[in-house]
Amino acid sequence: MIETVSTARAHGGTQGVYRHRSAATGTDMTFSVFVPDHAPGARLPVVWYLSGLTCTHANVTEKGEYRRACAELGLIFVAPDTSPRGEGVPDDPAGAYDFGLGAGFYVDATQPPFDRHYRLWSYVTDELPALVAEAFPIDTTRQSITGHSMGGHGALTVGLRFPERFRAVSAFAPIVAPSQVPWGQKALGGYLGEDCAAWRRHDAVALIEDGARVKALLVDQGDADSFLAEQLRPELLADACEKAGIPLTLRMQPGYDHSYYFISTFLADHLAWHAERLR
Ligand SMILES: N[C@@H](CCC(=O)N[C@@H](CSC=O)C(=O)NCC(=O)O)C(=O)O
């Protein structure tokens, strides 16, 4: 059952925030959904947005500036949380921002004590899609996915593993090869264990090397992003896509950093690109 936390009119649509008890995570989970006004009985295409480290649903909802574009394009926009939260949910032992709370990395953890609640893969690919398809006027044959940084990693891996579900995949400054960068090595090691073989299904570059494909892929990356060289490494994705024949559009955006100033500049553009593919 979904509890409505808040609703507000915006850009000729309704921005809602909702809470429910998740079977996947064993916790309450909060997410946001924007629904443009639509004809009675109509079903609309949906764009999923997966957020980055330290985020809840609220970061993109409050700073993403997507509502005007979604209203004009007739797109539903869904933004889940990035981790389980609440009593009994373990965090990074040192309280670091890049693991634990706000940093679920879109995997189902296998390592104690995280395996009980950190099941964001099941949550975003299974439980939440079923829930929102039931509660909102979504056309489930017209879905696409995007995300930022850790959420860009999530969008890429979910899109690559569900090519029939998602007509298009885009990302903002994504972690493209978590097995090869410090954020990813810490998270995949902590959640999945030290056997790197288990990491490949949660690594976009490895998935492409192993044969996964997407129909269309758009990535924007700021060249003034302080995480670019160490954590993001878009050249690894470009190289893998070129070898695999995946049509990647990678746009390096001069002067842009890693923040929501960057995301909000280009999010409407991504939505228009998704809408083209969701017609
Ligand atoms: N310097 C920050 C690091 C956290 C950060 O930059 N988080 C990004 C996503 S990074 C990759 O997933 C973010 O989206 N933050 C939320 C926001 O509203 O900007 C720190 O130390 O916390």
From TrEMBL:
<feature type="active site" description="Charge relay system">
    <location>
        <position position="258"/>
    </location>
</feature>
<feature type="active site" description="Charge relay system">
    <location>
        <position position="225"/>
    </location>
</feature>
<protein>
    <recommendedName>
        <fullName>S-formylglutathione hydrolase</fullName>
        <ecNumber>3.1.2.12</ecNumber>
    </recommendedName>
</protein>
<dbReference type="Pfam" id="PF00756">
    <property type="entry name" value="Esterase"/>
</dbReference>
<feature type="active site" description="Charge relay system">
    <location>
        <position position="149"/>
    </location>
</feature>
<comment type="similarity">
    <text>Belongs to the esterase D family.</text>
</comment>
<dbReference type="GO" id="GO:0052689">
    <property type="term" value="F:carboxylic ester hydrolase activity"/>
</dbReference>
<comment type="function">
    <text>Serine hydrolase involved in the detoxification of formaldehyde.</text>
</comment>
<keyword id="KW-0719">Serine esterase</keyword>
<dbReference type="GO" id="GO:0005829">
    <property type="term" value="C:cytosol"/>
</dbReference>
<dbReference type="InterPro" id="IPR029058">
    <property type="entry name" value="AB_hydrolase_fold"/>
</dbReference>
<dbReference type="InterPro" id="IPR000801">
    <property type="entry name" value="Esterase-like"/>
</dbReference>
<keyword id="KW-0378">Hydrolase</keyword>
<dbReference type="GO" id="GO:0018738">
    <property type="term" value="F:S-formylglutathione hydrolase activity"/>
</dbReference>
<dbReference type="InterPro" id="IPR014186">
    <property type="entry name" value="S-formylglutathione_hydrol"/>
</dbReference>
<dbReference type="GO" id="GO:0046294">
    <property type="term" value="P:formaldehyde catabolic process"/>
</dbReference>
